[in-house]
Specification:
This protein is an alpha/beta fold. The protein has one domain (3-335): Aldolase class I (TIM Barrel, Alpha-Beta Barrel). Helix content is 46%, strand content 15%. It has twelve helices and ten strands. The strands form two sheets. The protein has an eight-stranded parallel barrel with strand order 1-2-3-6-7-8-9-10, surrounded by eight helices. A two-stranded antiparallel ribbon has the order 4-5. Helix 7 packs across helix 8 (188-209) and helix 11 packs antiparallel against helix 12. The longest helix is centred in the middle third of the chain and has 22 residues, at 188-209. The protein binds 1,3-dihydroxyacetonephosphate (13P). Residues 22, 138, 177, 260-262, 291-294 line the site of 1,3-dihydroxyacetonephosphate. 1,3-dihydroxyacetonephosphate binds at residues 22, 138, 177, 260-262, 291-294.
């Protein structure tokens, strides 16, 4: 394991003012999103939409890495440059989603286990040779009646740790993503408890598998009430509960935490991150973003309505807003 390379890549991914763009929707998810805005999905429309985002000028200071899907890492920009090479030429690390999706967990209706460990070593080796320097694996934890089960937590924690160890062996920084979903009526306290449980289980499994924590990143949910909870709380309490949960359940030698947006509005995702970074005192890790929808939802809509340039402007605006949130310098007045 090249710990120096891993630590350097991890540090670069969370360097000041920069975060990650998650553009790794599976073909199925990306096709649904294209259809929802009236575009016929195909390998070419998926490529055209994403490469238009990638050529945007001026985002390099706000985006340190882009997570790609297997189809995209093999595609080319309009001028024929392979996409991972193009991103690297902009000073942006190419990353790759390596799980093969969340599948039904046996004997646990409604719960999922993320698969993709078979053949992972060989796939990581190939992705590294194509230019990838980091990877992502997403586990999904649902809160509900009797959920999450012990089986759901332990199987996903185990898989995340095995994935992380294999990635590190192949030179890829693993982004460890145990996502507690926002679906449901639960309150923020329940989200806190379940997030604490999956974080504890995941880092315990990482210890057993020998994962090198300074060469890894965590991609968690924020501590938020379920979307259908009657008490939505304040942005301030969400930010405080998130920092409290992470402080108590994440190793302090982890270089960075890159949140997912998980269905929050663009502005909530930025405001929450900003509040956390504006708190008095230093956090042990960099607090950054690895947003998908909160960086690109508007850009996709605009692209579908026919303007490449407006789509790039929509992406650039969100990238800049989140970049400011890295240092607590965002304010709502900058949104207009
Ligand atoms: P969202 O920010 O849209 O939740 O996506 C981030 C991600 O990569 C989820 O795996």
């Amino acid at each position: 394991m090249d710990t120096e390379l891993l630590e350097q890549t991890a540090r670069e991914l969370v360097s000041q003012g920069r975060g990650i763009l998650a553009a790794d929707e599976s073909n199925g998810t990306m096709s649904n999103r294209l259809q929802a805005v009236g575009v016929e999905p195909s390998p070419e429309t998926r490529r055209a939409y994403r490469s238009n985002i990638f050529v945007t000028s001026g985002y390099d200071s706000a985006i340190s890495g882009v997570i790609l899907f297997d189809e995209t890492i093999r595609q080319k920009m309009d001028d024929g440059t392979p996409i991972p090479q193009y991103l690297a030429s902009r000073g942006v690390h190419p990353g790759i989603k390596v799980d093969t999706g969340a599948k039904e967990l046996a004997h646990h209706s409604g719960e999922k286990i993320t698969e993709g460990l078979d053949g992972l070593r060989e796939r990581c080796e190939e992705y590294f040779s194509m230019g990838a320097r980091f990877a992502k694996w997403r586990a999904v934890i649902r809160i509900g009646d009797g959920m999450p089960s012990a089986a759901n937590l332990s199987t996903n924690a185990h898989a995340l740790a095995r994935y992380a160890a294999i990635c590190q062996e192949q030179g890829l920084v693993p982004i460890i993503e145990p996502e507690v979903l926002m679906d449901g009526v639960h309150d923020a306290q329940r989200c806190y408890e379940v997030t604490a449980e999956i974080l504890d289980a995941t880092f315990e499994a990482c210890k057993i598998q020998g994962v090198h924590i300074p060469g890894a990143l965590l991609k968690p949910n924020m501590i938020l009430p379920g979307k259908a909870c009657s008490d939505q709380g304040s942005r301030e309490s969400a930010a405080q509960m998130t920092v409290d949960c992470l402080t108590n359940h994440v190793p302090h030698n982890l270089p960075g935490i890159v949140f997912l947006s998980g269905g929050q509005s663009d502005e909530d995702a930025t405001a929450h991150l900003n509040l956390m970074n504006a708190m008095d005192g230093e956090h042990p890790w960099q607090l950054s973003y690895s947003y998908g929808r909160a960086l690109l939802a508007h850009a996709l809509q605009t692209w579908a309505s026919g303007s490449n340039e407006d789509s790039q402007q929509a992406f650039l605006h969100r990238a800049k807003m989140n970049s400011l949130a890295r240092s607590g310098d965002w304010s709502v007045s900058l949104e207009s």
